[in-house]
Amino acid sequence: MTRTTQRIRVGHSPDPDDAFMFYALARDKIDTDGYRFEHELVDIETLNRRAQRAELELTALSLHAYAYLADTYVLCTCGASMGDNYGPIVVSRRACDRDRLRQVTIAVPGTWTTAFLALRLWLGADFRYVVVPFDRILEVTRTGHVDQQPVDAGLVIHEGQLTYRDDQLEQAVDLGQWWMRETGLPLPLGANAIRKDLGAATIRDVNRLLLASIRYGLAHRDDALQYALSFARGLDRGQADRFVGMYVNDWTLDFGERGRRAVDVLLERGYQAGVIPHRQIPEFAG
Known about the structure:
Elements: E1 6-12, H1 16-26, E2 35-41, H2 44-51, E3 58-62, H3 63-69, E4 73-75, E5 81-83, E6 89-92, H4 98-101, E7 105-108, H5 114-123, E8 128-131, H6 137-143, E9 145-146, E10 149-150, E11 153-156, H7 160-163, E12 170-174, H8 175-183, E13 187-195, H9 200-219, H10 221-228, H11 237-247, H12 250-253, H13 256-272
Parallel strand pairs: 1-2, 1-3, 7-8, 7-11
Antiparallel strand pairs: 3-13, 4-13, 5-13, 6-11, 6-12, 9-10
Helix pairs in contact: 1-9, 1-10, 1-11, 9-10
């Protein structure tokens, strides 16, 4: 008996690592076993907010955002973006220490991003910020303003971690390195999550197909990287390869015990710091 096709709307960021991860699904390289995947590419903070409305069956999420969405979504065991002694960075036009950053205005890519949570934990206090699309943060930090508001520093995610020097900016802190010193764990930045109302069988299938897509990309790296380059925003092939390697790797195949521990510690520390209003225990598919 032929199975009825089931639509799975997929949301992920338009950046090289997510594109690499979803290459096989986006280009029909693997058998999807009766599921039809429709891809929507938008920035991570928009995906975080759309998940409040449960719009997508499978979506990339910031681990910070997951704390508010655990009633609706379950985390995939694969598809993680982990900062293994690297991660989001804070940049500025001139050298800034932690005390100085507590007093200035920082451009951030969204308040539900894990980068924002990590910055709150590092600064240990509230700070002035303005929300700016992630792909404009280097620009507004360099120019010093956005919409007539002053900007003194920027919280950089995605490929800007590799290119900020092109804008004559200086790094104040690498939050992934700080987190590793603080906890001995990688910084769990992003995950993929499946809507719980799909039911256990579909959740298992979608998790399995996402894993197959990641494995296909890693096994056909040149082809997947060529596809990812179309989302690289100024990176050359070598830089894109490096960036993909930072965020699509063994951690992406499976969180593993240490990766799951990292998620738990992040959510616990967010709660203890008063950033996350409740203690959230992470739940994984399967």
